[in-house]
Amino acid sequence: MIRLLFVPMTLCLLIGFVTWGMVAAKTWSTPRVFYPKTLLALRNRMLADANAGYLYRHYSTWCSIAGGKLLPEDFAVISLVGAVVGFIGGLCLSNLTMSLCLFLLFLLLPTLMLYARYTVRMNAMIKSFGQFVDLFSRHYSNRKSILPSFRDMLEECPKQLENELILLINKLTDGGNATAAIEQFAERLNHGWAQDFATYVISGLEGETKDIQASLNRLTNEMFVLEDEREERQSEIHSIWISLIIVIVICILLIPYNQTLLKDSLRLYFFTPDGQTLLAIALTIWCFCVLVAFIWGKRHE
Description:
The chain crosses the membrane at residues 76-109, 240-257, 277-297. This is Type II secretion system protein GspF domain-containing protein. By secondary structure, this protein is an all-alpha fold. It has a domain at 126-217. The chain is 85% helix and 0% strand. It is built from 13 helices and no strands. It has helices spanning 2-29, 37-48, 50-66, 72-92, 96-127, 129-143, 146-152, 159-173, 178-189, 192-205, 213-261, 265-270, 273-299. Helix 1 (2-29) packs across helix 4 and helix 10 packs antiparallel against helix 11. The longest helix has 49 residues, at 213-261. Residues 28-34 have low confidence and may be disordered.
């Protein structure tokens, strides 16, 4: 059993050290290029595959919105290194269950934290989207032209959507496909309102609708009506979060009480294999449950 567990550890160590060595060598020789050609070729191969390309593009969107300057490759290296360190840490304590729990926890934790941050950013952007559409509608009523309207509203644009608007304007002015730029804008926001807005703007760009003002006004009114329902739903979610926090605080306060009842609990939990196993499983489940509950709550705000 122990020999079998060394197989994934050896593979992860080998892949991690080889990748890290290639990145370090490439960075040392050409500081302006971070990733070697091998990783670029792997990225292109992933994009060529339908399923892998779909996952990679969505992960790239999460990184661009919530990951700062980090790329999917960076998160892959961080997850791999963390998983290997966690696995080796468990083996150093001669506890196989702890090794597997820490391996799984550190492997998935960076992605879950990235998605949680992405969800928070997206909620802030969607909350400002009604103001964004209303602002565009007012500028469009004056200019009756789509691209100048986007440019004029830049100074008044909500801060949460300013980066997305700048990216959209750059794509519209670089001579590329304007329809594709609007579709990518809606895809990044990943919301029905953004899809409706993109449909109206594209119909105006392609000449299917000469004046999209009425459609924009209707969309703005629908969003403000739904925003009231959204606030009612948020109050329910907040009450659930308060209940969850109360339960967590009670559990933490019960730890000293448990130690008064069981004097030897510290040694049993931290210095015995069975106790370490229970703590590792509990920590893994607790972290996953809190993060998943947070993501679920934010996605349904």
